[in-house]
Amino acid sequence: MKKKFKRPIDLKKIWETCRHLKIEDIKEYRRLRKERRERILEERRNSPRGKQMQKIYGFMNRFSLFFHALLACGINLGIEAVSRHSLIEAFQYMTGVPLVFLYNAFMIFCTFSVVYLVKRRVFARIIISVLWGFIGVSNGYMLMKRVTPFNAQDLKVAKDGVTLINNYFNGFELMVLVIGIAAVVAWVISMWKRGGQYQGKLRRIPALLGIALCIVGYIWITDLAIEKRVVSTYFGNIAFAYEDYGLPYCFMASVFNTGITEPNNYNEKEIDRITENGAINKNEADNKSQMPNILFVQLESYFDIEEVEFFTTSEDVTPNLHQMAQQYSTGYFKVPSIGAGTANTEFEVLTGMNLRFFGPGEYPYKTMLKDNTCESAATALAALGYGTHALHNNGGNFYSRSRVFNNIGFDSFTSKEFMNILQTTEKGWAKDDVLLQHIEDAMNSTEQQDFVFTVSVQGHGDYPAEKVLENPRIKVEGIEDEALKNRWEYYVNQVYEMDQFAGNLVKQVEKRKEPTVIVFYGDHLPTLGLKAEDLKGRYLYDTNYVIWDNIGLTKEDRNIPAYQIAADVFDRLGIHSGTVFNYHQERRKTKKYLPDLELLQYDLLYGKQYTYRDHTPTKEGHMIMGMRDVTLDKIIPHLGAGYSLYGTNFTKSSKVYINGEKQKSTFLNNTRIELNESELSEGDVIVIRQMGSSDTVFRSSNEYIYKNGGLEVQEGTGTDLSKSWVSQLHEEKK
């Protein structure tokens, strides 16, 4: 076999060629290259296959609108199949609600109208198809990992999402993702060269008119579809909305339809009428000396199990809450969503604002409150001297709460990162019992009355279809389907423990012997496929509430929507503080109550804030994260490499930094952290940081200098508790 030798690169010759290269040579090279390309294309066109394809292309160009319609229907069916994880379900959706299917297909069809502006029409069609495919695949994958579908807000936090990629993809899935993206990119690039160009004359003015006609037609059809209730502008459950109204419409609604549209009659005169020339901004109490502590406890996916009619339980699932309901005010609690949307119930409770005025499926926490200040129950009570605290046994960055709570006036927020969670559910969610000590800490942190807003997480789905509870306390009877029975049995046992938490909280508060009111309520129904006919109340937007107190409030049973609950409780206590809450108290039964509420909400969030008359109650946040300082007491070297750090208030989110560099550490308990690979030198600086997702620094300990085998604390070098944690985070990043 003859051995092949590769000719070496002649760098000298290349240099000489480049050195003597002229602009005319470049132009000539490009001219020859263009002629060669045209010659090749001409040969392809004149070949037997080329002539045959020209006839096909000509036919398709003449009837391109028809083929675009077929392509749009095919893409719509494909992305729905991926989203629903079933081609059969997608087909049933297409045949079951054909008007919805065709409406979404028409939306996709309209996006193909832009291809008439370019010569590379095949390539343009591919790009548009790939973009729709990306939305469909992203939605399908998101629904495998969480309850909430893919929406525009996910794109806005894509940067943070990259840091959480390991939470969504395992190693194999990540490899498939990278290979898949690379393959699609390579194919798209190849089609730029191979897709060919339209040979006819481009008629851009008729094309622009056609695009305009598509836009006008889409707007008209959308208005008609809303009027005829083919689609809706309100999503009670965003996951259900995607199933009912289709991915294209719901995703685009999340892109373009956010916030509150300016009402036609919005002006300063109307706002003066609504606010009684600013009088509604008052912050008063009938008797300040007798104001009680106020606790709101939002129970994840809680409702009264006795509302369900198709099964029974072996014993009372919520004995404590039932006992409270017999003695104290209770009723149905109307929430803005079903099966998901915890943050939206929070939003209505805390701000008193009605979510129906916002875009369909919108989360104001993400679109508005993450970066803007707003009045809330916290600011209303702070104006009367209350300490204001928020607690949640889940991540502080979830739903952007760490920033939102800062912007709506809370003094402190204790999230999962500041809790030693020893007990979790079989699905990995923190049990609610851990909240008891932190509620106590919040109430002990001030001399005055406290407002404590607590969000639980134990009842969170997904509820397992397989049997994970070997010996459940509560047994479900009357459900034949084994998987459904397992799901309900798991759920009711979580609710039973949530009820125990509620009972223990009442006992804990009673021991304090302080005047206190506790509002327990559920944020939404669980994701267990409930239908209206399954419930006694025949309504899917109702959970339950009960208001416990030790100050002798009169029992008043009535149904209350989430956005009115705070105003109602304040009114019972003689508290008249906060613009929106005062509005509810004074205008709830008037004729123009809801239209005027929409005007007021628009003015406060998106308008010129005529309400405040140049005096905004909440100008900037001042919230700190956590209630307890992390301290280091001593350091013990190992016999080999590494050290043991001893201190107080460590959690799994406590991370050790030496001279600004994060160390590999092992959390053992709330007083001990192991550093097995670190090496310390005289004068090194040690700091413990409480870290949230996306490497967010929530709070830092004082600096400790390593000297003579011990630690020397540098007082005043930790997180400044007199300033907002957000402002300090920004300062640190500069």
UniProtKB/TrEMBL annotation:
Q: Name one GO cellular component term.
A: plasma membrane
The chain positions of domain Sulfatase N-terminal read: 292-562
Transmembrane stretches in the record are 59-79, 99-118, 123-144, 174-192, 204-221
How does this protein lie in the membrane?
Multi-pass membrane protein
**Pfam families xref list:** Sulfatase (PF00884)
Keywords of the record, alphabetical order, are: Cell membrane, Membrane, Transmembrane, Transmembrane helix
Q: Which domain of life is it from?
A: Bacteria
The primary site where this protein sits is membrane
Q: Where in the cell is it found?
A: Cell membrane
Pathway(s) annotated for this protein in UniProt:
Cell wall biogenesis; lipoteichoic acid biosynthesis
Which InterPro entries did the record assign? Answer: Alkaline_phosphatase_core_sf (IPR017850), OpgB/LTA_synthase_biosynth (IPR050448), Sulfatase_N (IPR000917)
Q: Which PANTHER family match?
A: LIPOTEICHOIC ACID SYNTHASE, PHOSPHOGLYCEROL TRANSFERASE I
* Record-given protein name: LTA synthase family protein
Question: Origin organism of this chain?
Answer: Suipraeoptans intestinalis
